[in-house]
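Lab notes, practical 5.
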Amino acid sequence: MGYPRKLTRRFRAFDNFAISFTIINIISGIFSSFGFGMSAGGPRVLVFGWIAVSIMVLFVGAAMAEIASAYPTSGALYFSAGKLAKRHRGAWSWYTGWLNFVGQVGGTAATGYAAATFIQAFLSMQWPSYDVTAQRTVLITAVILLVQALANTYTVHLVALMNRISVWWLLIGLVVIVVVLTVEPSHHQSASFATHFVNDTGFSNAVYGGMLGLLVTSWTFTGFDGSFHMSEETVRATVNAPKGIMRAIGYSAVTGLILMLALVYAIRDYDKEAGAAAPPVQVLVDALGVGTAKLLLLIVIGAMLFCGLANMTSNTRQIFAFSRDGAMPGSHWWHSVSPRTRTPVKAVWLAAACSFVLVIPGWWSHTAFTAVVSVNVVGLFLSYAVPIFLRLRLDDFEPGPWHLGRYSKLIGRVAVTWIVISSVLFMLPHASPITATSFNYAPIALATVLLIATVWWFASARRRFKGPVSYGRPDEVAAMDLI
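Output from the prediction step:
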């Protein structure tokens, strides 16, 4: 790919799959967004929307996997965008990189904040006198980010080990939660309950309310580009990285549907639970009792912590690669690699610091924080769409060993279409009446990011940033390898 090798190639096929599977993290995604789905479509959209969106995400993943096989680098999306563009390669690469950077940082921040929220829910269940406050949520998030940064500072072996553990935590945790929700409650909803439709969004148009409910699955299926970003640390990356993407999405789709069904059929008092501060927690309490609910909540919190760790790992590799091509302020700092641990330590702490900055508004305004982290999903999926779109414009694309054959462009068109539709949904109002509290600030936040990137591009970046840098011929680059 034109770069001297600095990162240690020690990720096996399972490790590469584990990073994306952990970031998708069905337990974290479903539990953090289940309450929104109960109001926007109810069981019908939660169940059948999960199936439909999972299929669409598989199209996106397949299109991305083909590109990952052709360009297996840490730069991933922004690198491939620069290589696939016919003209203005620097601009395509620039915007893709910044969309991906913002999305990655938002994902790390959102996951840490969600974990802090559920930790406080557990503490209030364990000690009823505990006072849940927004300020404590921010402080707990800061501690979580600190611990995750320390873990990412040490060797690739440690990160790989943690990701292997996280896969088994998710799978065993899923089995425990599903079995307990199936066996323990004295009452379950009837089979037809899966078709029950609810529209408590405030909008009179039921179709619109149901479409908003599709965001539950979209929220969950983010971050599978992690396998792409870990390419330079993965053995046989041209095959194992695309396989990691597809396996992570496929396994998450199936296991997520099982978990979703278990939660839906465990619902007892729909209105009470949908109106609770933490609807999925209330579902567990009503179905299982406080004691068992607390034990399951520990599994959920653990899943969220593992998810945040993997998020930060992926985020760090994107910063490392983007800086390697001189696209970030202080690039010479962020693409340096520790000679002792062989990890981009400075990039780790930049990722942690940027994530904490996004969390700070939560100190005084949950709405402001939600607006910022909503850009996570839109930023990531738009960064997924750009290289796929550019690949569709090429007739001379040279695929890697993992490819889609004659179905490549068809799958790519479906992927880009779905990304456009889901991105629009994320930026539309999610509740009515629309007030300062309920307004969806995601379009404003995204526009602000794009405005800054545009001003910066025309002010200086276009003269120095030409896209991915080549350090020479393959033989010259091989001589530069440090490993």
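Observations recorded by the TA: DSSP finds 20 helices and two strands in the chain. The radius of gyration is 22 Å.
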